[in-house]
Write a structure and sequence with these properties.
It comes from Paraliobacillus ryukyuensis. The structure is a single chain. By secondary structure, the chain is an alpha+beta fold. It is about 40% helix and about 35% strand. It has a single domain, classed as Alpha-Beta Plaits (2-Layer Sandwich). It has two helices and four strands. It has a four-stranded antiparallel beta sheet. The chain starts with a strand and ends with a strand.
């Protein structure tokens, strides 16, 4: 089973692309270290207060994949400097 999630977020405290990159880098690094998923910034690279992540997880059971992606989303929510606005999940 393959689950793909697109996560749009707002970074309120970012005053430059450098500020944005530091937040995104911490989030991506933490998720990659804690969970076995692929994650990348996939849109809004030139906007300094908005970003979109793509997260992909693969496992042999649907429940496992959903649990891992939900844990990633919960981890994103723990960062106070970023707010998750929309999340779209798609089974592939």
């Amino acid at each position: 089973m393959i689950l793909y999630a697109e996560v749009t977020c707002i970074i309120y405290d970012a005053q430059s692309l450098k500020d944005k990159r530091s937040v995104i880098k911490r989030i991506i690094h933490r998720i990659q270290n804690d969970y076995n998923v692929a994650i990348s910034e996939i849109d809004y690279q030139d906007l300094w207060q908005k970003t979109m992540f793509g997260i992909v997880s693969i496992a042999n059971e649907k429940v496992k994949v959903e649990r891992v992606v939900d844990q990633c989303l919960n981890l994103i929510d723990t960062f106070p400097e970023i707010e998750r606005t929309t999340t779209e999940k798609q089974w592939l």
